[in-house]
Amino acid sequence: MTREDARFDAVFVGGGPRAVATVVRLVDRLRDSGESTPVRVAIIDAVEIAAGATWRTDQPAEYLNNTTVAATTIHPDASTRMTGPAAPGPTLADWITDVEAAGEHPFADWVIEEARGLRAAEFPTRRLQGVYYRDRLDSAIASGLVDVTEVLGTAVELVARDDIRRVLLTDGSVYSAPIIVLAQGMVQAQPSLEVQALQRTAADHELTYIAPGMPAEQPWELVFPSAEIAPGETVLVRGLGANFFDVVGHLSRQWGGRFEPVDGDAFGRLRYVPSGREPKLVAGSRRGFPYRSKPDGDADPAPFEPRYATRAWFDELSELEGLSLKHDVFPTLAAEFAHAHLAALERWSPGTLRSGWLERLDAASGLPEVEAVLESHVLGERYRWLVDELRRPTRGEHVGQERWRELVHRHVEDELGSMSLPS
Questions:
Q1: Which stretches does the entry tag as region Disordered (predicted)?
Q2: Which residues pair with 284 in a beta bridge?
Q3: In this predicted model, what pLDDT tens digit does every residue of 321-380 receive, in sequence order?
């Protein structure tokens, strides 16, 4: 391919679900208009067409999606605010039902294995959702209304000249069209100065350092059991967010360990059964608390209706200039968090609240007043909580190791309870 060919009606930079959704909508519009001439489209992605990087289909099964089966679709319906025809199609849940009923799938045997018995309230693997995106793109292509050229490569430059725009790839190829659709998803940042310093320090001391990034794209073989990483070797982990659980889930399998359900546990606790090959993980973060969990099952949280952070409030914010997160935004969000906490307590343990909290919260005009309501209307320390604990779990107090263990244990217990009995 030379730098002067590859002309299209539209070029997509980024080939994940954003691109798939746009192609699907294009087909819907063409079908609605009666147009029969196919639109020539090029889709460029550095990892995988349709699945993209996040839902790439070659990643381990331990990496789960962060939304449930029931929450995912690539097709809009009549409830979507948009122009053009409403054209609902199979949701992820519908697709899984169809795949299970078919008993086979041309992509891979594991597609059937993962689809079998998967419920709407459960979290699918990311790779299974990637196959769903692939199937939806294939369905759009099969309509004959789009002629899609799939390009695996990395776009590095976009040049506009007259009515034609050109996308340059690292291999020197050029894809031109009057319309360029920037459909990138989670674009990875360049290494920060801190990361660069850690890389240099690790190299100077002959240490292994894996920089932040997508879990599915990391060289985890560097921390598999080896001459460099012996059983019991200390491995530092920075961060206790979602990626931490991806890493632990994947590496535990590589080390030969496994997680097993605790028999009869009402909260669904797991017990880790080690293989003896594991290194010693020392994990930490700025707060030192594990990332917030999500319920995995049929017990859905109660429907949420904002009391303070309403659509009208957001509309008012959009009219302000020089907006301050601290002064203009966060106090209202804090009141919303406080209301959620106190309303849940009122439903599940009404005896723990003093009356009049709602009137005082409605009248609160800033964060200190919101915190005062939380402090004064909850009886007993067990359920007392302040918004500032989201940022500072100890409320700024220095605590010892045993007290810290108690705080983390209580946090985990409360999470398990709220997921099993959501309010």
A1: 284-303
A2: 238
A3: 899 999 999 999 999 999 999 998 998 888 899 999 999 999 999 999 999 999 999 998
Q: What is the pLDDT of residues 393-404, one digit of tens each?
A: 888 889 999 999
Q: Which pTM was predicted?
A: 0.85
Task: Give the range among 3-12, 115-124, 171-180, 370-379 with minimum mean pLDDT.
Answer: 3-12
Listed in order, the ranges of the chain carrying CATH 3.50.50.60 are: 10-182
The secondary structure of 122-157 as a DSSP string is SPPBHHHHHHHHHHHHHHHHHTTSEEEEEEES-EEE
Distance (Å, whole) CA 6 – CA 304:
49
Q: State mean pLDDT over 217-230.
A: 71
> Is the C-alpha dihedral spanning 82, 78, 26, 64 positive or negative?
positive
Spell out the alpha helix ranges (H) of 8-119.
17-33, 92-102, 109-115
Q: How many whole angstroms separate alpha carbon 65 and alpha carbon 54? A: 9
Task: Provide CATH code, domain 10-182.
Answer: 3.50.50.60
Q: Specify the pairing of strand 270-273 against strand 258-261.
A: antiparallel
Pairing of strands 234-238, 39-45: unpaired
Q: Taking the CB of residue 228, how many other CB atoms lie within 10 A of it? A: 12
Whole-angstrom distance, CA of residue 160 vs CA of residue 298: 51
SS3 track for 80-108: CCCCCCCCCCCCHHHHHHHHHHHCCCCCC
Structure tokens at 238: 């920075």
The C-alpha atoms of residue 50 and residue 276 are separated, in whole angstroms, by: 40
Cα–Cα distance measured from residue 358 to residue 335, given in angstroms and rounded to the nearest whole number: 10
Q: How confident is the model at residue 1 (pLDDT cuts 50, 70, 90)?
A: very low
Distance from C-alpha of 83 to C-alpha of 92, rounded to nearest angstrom = 23
Given a contact cutoff of 8 angstroms between Cβ atoms, the answer to whether 129 and 72 are in contact is yes
Q: What sign has the CA pseudo-torsion 279, 285, 289, 293?
A: negative
Mean pLDDT of 391-420: 86
Lowest-pLDDT range of 134-143, 150-159, 181-190, 410-419: 410-419
Average pLDDT for 159-168: 91
| Residues 146, 39: Cα–Cα separation, whole Å | 5
